[in-house]
Amino acid sequence: MAGFRERAAEGLRVGDTFRTSRTFTEDDVVLFARISRDYNPVHFDARFAEAKSFSAPICQGLLAASLATEIGGQIGWLASSMNFRFKGPVYVGETITCTWVMTAIDQNNGRARASVTTTKDDGATVIEAEINGIVPGAAERKILGQMLSEGDPTNRLARQRPAAKAET
Fold this sequence. Notes:
Blueprint: H1 4-10, E1 17-23, H2 26-36, H3 46-51, H4 61-74, E2 78-86, E3 95-105, E4 111-120, E5 125-134, H5 138-149, H6 156-160, E6 165-167
Antiparallel strand pairs: 1-3, 1-6, 2-5, 3-4, 4-5
């Protein structure tokens, strides 16, 4: 089975589906807060989270949504718009799975649309999204192929991250 980059180098098609899963840790929430400056107490204080009707502090929504950007980055997608609908909380220690489906591609200009759904292991949907962007054209696909033949050195960090499970 070809990986994300290999499929992008071959050329993306309507119906192509990509999945990745991840379990966020307390360290992930803290690191994301440092980068994003999202220090909302709902992510750090159990009392505040409970007052918001959550059973514990929750992960930042955009942290959970970053699974979609992981897939987009792997396939060389250049986003032009992202519409997220947050449907439920993601708690530290829960595994979520993001499923990305290519729903439209304009072969004339490379503009494309994807439908993205992120779910918990029990099947509950936590994020729905529609993402528009530009898929790699012929020149970019050629470079992706060269990168892959070189061992994909620019993607070294993604291959070293043991917490994620990616499947195509």
